[in-house]
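Hi R.,

Here's the chain you asked about this morning:
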Amino acid sequence: MNQEISEKHSCLIIGSGPAGYTAAIYASRANLKPVLYQGIQPGGQLTITTEVENYPGYPDGIQGPEMMIHFEKQATRMGADIRYGIATAVDFSGRPLKVQIDEEKWIAADSVIISTGASAKWLGLESEQRLNGFGVSACAVCDGFFFKGKEVAIVGAGDTAAEEALYLSKICSQVHMIVRRGEMRASKIMQERVLNAPNIRIYWNSETDEVLGQQKVEAVRIHNNQTGEKTEIPVSAFFVAIGHQPNSGIFNGWIEMDEAGYIKTIPGTSKTNVEGVFAAGDVQDKIYRQAVTAAGSGCMAALDAERYLSEKGLH
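And the predicted structure, written out as tokens:
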């Protein structure tokens, strides 16, 4: 593979969203002159979120895409070089570190911040995508509040689904939980809590056929995969909690990850197993996955990168 280097930078940030943009803001202020490639979804998961009400500093809430425009503008004003483009390969075998962009050019960098995020797994229904942001969501903690006092449905059977169902049960009148098998994958304690919640109804051995509604979610149609019986459940929202996939594929073989593909960082830092490579946001966080925690870890990554470059005499 021809790895002719077309340009070299002090700090390269891969991926946008709260983590990447915050890293760019801090790295710019430290005069690292960062270059940020926005990736396949500029702005990250928040660009498919409608109202964001839980990020500090926005007393009236804000639309997810608008918030990411603010982040990008701030990073640009600080001096970050923000570019369209996707990182398609890396070579972390030597110094400087090398990253391929758009399967074409190779860029060298003294430090790399990975903030490629994670993507929610979906069921693959046309109606699910069409109504995404109009009652369909992959984040109950983000969007559950908008359906206070209403009936909602959630699909999933793991710890995340159980946690989100319990969260929804505290603010919604009724939670209809759709579980594909005759048992849940969640830990025993989470299962017990779900089973003991008076307003969570579980539909065992059930799968979703369609989310119903034109402009917004009005109902969900499911079928029992043992009897074939179909049921329509009137709901105002449909939450998908079947997991997330970290966008870490191109770092396979270079960066240490857990079994699910989340990048491992040294606890209390953003450092990976490769010197000079740092990770921030949802690509390394499978627990919190919030915009505010992603932004915080982006700040950590930029500070860690600045410290690393100073120690190495590269800045």
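Residues 122-240 form a domain with the FAD/NAD(P)-binding domain fold (CATH 3.50.50.60).

Let me know if you need anything else.
M.
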